[in-house]
Amino acid sequence: MVDSLGSLKDDMRLALDLVEFARSLGLEPDPWQADLLGSTSKRVLMNVSRQAGKSTVAAVLALHRALYHPKSLVLCLAPALRQSQELFAKIAGFYGTLGEPMRAYAERRLSLELTNGSRIVTLPGSERTVRGFSGVATLLLDEASRVDDDLYYALRPMLAVSGGTLILLSTPYGRRGAFFEEWINGTGWDKYEVPATECPRISDSFLEEERRTHHPFWFRQEYLCSFEEAEGAFFSGEMVDQALTLKDLGETPLFPEACIQEAS
Fold first, then answer.
1. pLDDT number for residue 250
2. Is there a domain that residue 252 lies in?
3. Residues of the chain falling short of pLDDT 50
4. Domain-embedded: residue 61
5. Cα(92)–Cα(55) distance, rounded to whole angstroms?
6. Between the CA of residue 243 and those of 22, 35, 58, 175, what are the distances in Å?
7. CA distance 251 to 264
8. How many alpha carbons lie under 13 Å from residue 248 in its C-beta half-sphere?
9. What distance in Å separates the CA atoms of residue 128 and residue 195, rounded to the nearest whole number?
10. Given its phi and psi angles, is residue 42 left (phi above 0), alpha (psi -120 to 50 degrees) or beta?
11. Residue 167, number of CB atoms within 10 A of its CB
12. pTM for the structure as a whole
């Protein structure tokens, strides 16, 4: 990647400092992004508003890992192929911004293989598409709140031997599922919550317009990082949890047994 002493020093600086690496891509990280880029945690949760920069910082992390850690396998997953393509487009765009510092051995629509042996592979979120991979260095799960729990738990063993990094990024989507459970009850995670009100690129006037024209449920979920009850749910998740606890204690729940069974 280098051809002179000066460029060697610059390259070492970018290898060690992800904030400077992001700046070399033409980005000035927001404070929360800078904190994340400086994190050494192997488990990261991003509960971040729409358009607040979560996929951008994920793309920076993916590309940095591939460039500066030879033979790294970076997997980028999302519930749908279209979402995977969007994430890969950011990664490929940043790679182009750097002037392709390391020649690509192969570049396909959804993968990039570098001459240092690293690979970035982007896949739709299907259990069938991921089970053949092992030795994953970095696993990025975009729109994680919308990923089936079966897929999430099929992914985790990929990191058992490699000791790789797991990064979940999403806006909330109800009060159920692996993303919600990890955010509320998970331990060992580096957690980042960034509502739209803290993003300097989203204006107050835009948010006010969105607040006026959309249901409060939707606005809180998409822009304020709030885990909302599913629309139309007769009983809240808290009510169900309380009823199940009462049932375990042998006490009478506040609503019929049939409802508890159906909810659980």
1. 56
2. no
3. 1-6, 233-237, 239-241, 243-247, 255-264
4. yes
5. 13
6. 49, 40, 40, 16
7. 17
8. 7
9. 34
10. alpha
11. 25
12. 0.81
- What's the pLDDT at 217? 93
CA angle 114, 138, 118 (to 5 degrees): 15
For 126, the token pair is 């299907």
At 8 the pLDDT is 63
To the nearest 5 percent, what fractions of the chain are helix, strand and coil? Answer: 45, 15, 35
Domain-located, residue 27: yes
Q: Which domain holds residue 197?
A: 5-201
CATH number at residue 130: 3.40.50.300
Give how many domains the chain has, as a whole number.
1
Q: What is the pLDDT of residue 58?
A: 97
Sign of the dihedral defined by the CA atoms of residues 49, 50, 55, 57, in that order: negative
Tokens 């700046």 appear where?
23
Q: Give the DSSP H or E segment for 151.
A: helix 149-155
For residue 236, being part of any structural domain is answered with: no
What is the CA 93 to chain-centroid distance, rounded? 19
